[in-house]
Design a protein that fits this description.
With 73 residues, the chain is an alpha+beta fold. The chain has one helix and five strands; from the N terminus they run E-E-E-H-E-E. It has one domain (5-59).
Length: 73
């Protein structure tokens, strides 16, 4: 089962945390590093990447799930 990945502020920088997870799967110095790792995980799991700002609110989404309506052809 794929779990969405969240990029959230962390006391040591930025964390990649699976939805519903108690702990971060990884912590990075910069948000860009965390996004890169989170995107890699989301692609592998065909899930969604949710990027939070310093205030904790979601500021961007990046979907890597299966396309529900693939192009015909």
């Amino acid at each position: 089962m794929s779990r969405n990945q969240h990029i959230t502020p962390h006391p040591r920088g930025w964390a990649v945390q699976p939805a519903g997870g108690q702990r971060a799967s990884s912590v990075h110095r910069t948000q860009a590093e965390a996004i890169a790792r989170g995107r890699e995980i989301a692609r592998n799991q065909e899930s969604e990447l949710l990027i939070h700002g310093r205030n904790g609110r979601i500021r961007a989404r990046d979907s890597h799930g299966r396309d529900e309506f693939p192009p015909e052809g």
